[in-house]
Automatic annotation (TrEMBL):
The keyword Signal applies. The keyword Signal applies. Residues 1-19 form the signal peptide. Keywords: Signal. This is Outer membrane protein beta-barrel domain-containing protein. It comes from Flavobacterium xanthum.
Amino acid sequence: MKKKLLLLLIIILSFDASAQISFEKGYFITNAGEKIDCLIKNIDWRNNPMDFEYQLVQNGTLMNENIKSVKEFGIYNNSKYIRSTVRIDKSGNNINNFSDEKSPIFVEEQLFLKVLIEGKSNLYQYEKGNLQRFFYNKDNGNIEQLVFKNFKNYENKTGENNQFRQQLWNDLKCPSFTLNKMTNLKYQKNSLIAYFTEYNKCNNSEFINYENKVKKDLFILSIRPRLNNSSFFVEDLVSNSPDIDFGNKLGFSFGVEAEFILPFNRNKWALTIEPIYQNYKSEKAVNGSFFSGREQIATANYNYIEIPISVRHYFFLDNNGKVFINASYIIAISSNSSLEFTSPPNIFSKSVELVTRRNFGFGVGYKFKNKYSLEMRLQTSTNIVADYGYWDSNYKTSSLIFGYTLF
């Protein structure tokens, strides 16, 4: 099974990268004002781009446009960028690089600004690395930066320049806007989007919220029953006692997975956590002795809660399906777990506690219509008699996991 899983992983990882990034219907407007419909390579830019790739027809020639030749481009029902020459303050956000100057230090640059809200008053975003700046204009006027800056004062203490609140208080009027509301306004995307949305509604202005167009479910909860194939092997490192191979046992278990989609790179990365109750029970007749000279019955009863913490990567195939791979760090907590030896007729000889050890898991799966999934997962082996120094053991599990997404 390991070889099959490895082969499947190699096949998946060998997919051409272009299969992961889709070309979507969009447009761009040239310097001459000509609007050209095309298919734009949507890489879900985390940083504001300076150029983009596109095709005029599906599977056509790949071409490139940049900020010097295009004054606007967008992907329908997704995102929009406009070119603007603006004054931007690029003061650092790292406390070690805070300026002792409270006022912004502007430089003039030509940028593609991401449109967040478009209406009577527009909200724009610029992001590059850890730098994030917001811009605005009203009634198609000049675009200005909303000023926010961290700095150090004369006592070498940190302070904040929240001039953006005063800018909005002066320029965007609405009866529902109070001083308390302005004081609580944060220099964050969601907070500013809510403010500009309320302003446009207050002024009976039609507006577009581009973030609503690309709203994505960043939290997913799924139930995941599974079929497990587990094996347990014990070896005496000191005496001549025979090894005990408890063999492979099939078992059923049930998990609930919480998945947190990371909001970049087109939602291809996620973190998951999934508590699962597991049980392995097996008996084996032992000729010779671990603790006596007679034949014994060895009974392994391993009960534990397993908590895989995983990094997941998706490979989008089409609108209905996607392949994913996982790498997991697995924490386990045992309860009433033991390896017992009895001699006929049911004379108790010895009991050894079975303990949990952290290990790793690797899986590959397929998800259909964001609702149903099937995954194969392998775990590295663990020594669950590690506290008994004269013995070594090998406990390992592979699973076939069925998933159903609740929301």
